[in-house]
Amino acid sequence: MLYVCTGSVCRSPIAERLTRMELRRRLGPGAEQIAVRSAGTWGHVGAPMEAHAATVLTEYGADPAGFSGRELLDEHVIEADLVLTATRDHRAQVISMGHAAGLRTFTLKEFTRLVRAIDPATLPEGGVIDRARALVRAAAALRGWLLAPSAEADEVHDPYGAPVTVFRHIGAEIHTALDPVVTALTGVPAPAHS
């Protein structure tokens, strides 16, 4: 699973680390079966996560430590069974790289919308990898039928350089979009907060 934004220091690291946290909450040690990475179309290679992004992750209980920005490379796209991008422009850039990426590349919010329309009973029981691959195929099949209410609905805007309040808003958008995706991937709903 690969998240793509522009600089690989704000949106995609937030999505990567929140996804890892949610997978661990639902699958425990089994979360390691799903590799979650991030990269940027103009990635700041080796850069730490933006400080406000790290703050937002910490507020969610996710771990921002040890992050290092990456530039999006062909091998990242080839290795990923699912690519989720921050914007439609990022999606177009990934698809333009080839590697049959069109069938497994979505914006995060687009994928969330499609996943919500998929009956979980139609997904295979058992292995999380088989389930995830079936989910991606089902979402790709729905793409032309279930359109966004507006082009803007599929975008997660770049908070780079903005105050922490904007990062919190973007973090909430990403977290909200991730919940149905992780639930569908794992077959395990989010545990109730105590």
UniProtKB/TrEMBL annotation:
Phosphotyrosine protein phosphatase I domain sequence ranges: 2-184
Protein name listed in UniProt: Protein-tyrosine-phosphatase
SMART domains, per the entry: LMWPc
InterPro entries for this protein: Ptyr_pPase, Ptyr_pPase_sf, Tyr_phospatase_low_mol_wt
Domain of life of the source: Bacteria
Family named by the database record: Belongs to the low molecular weight phosphotyrosine protein phosphatase family.
Pfam families associated with the record: LMWPc
Keywords: Hydrolase
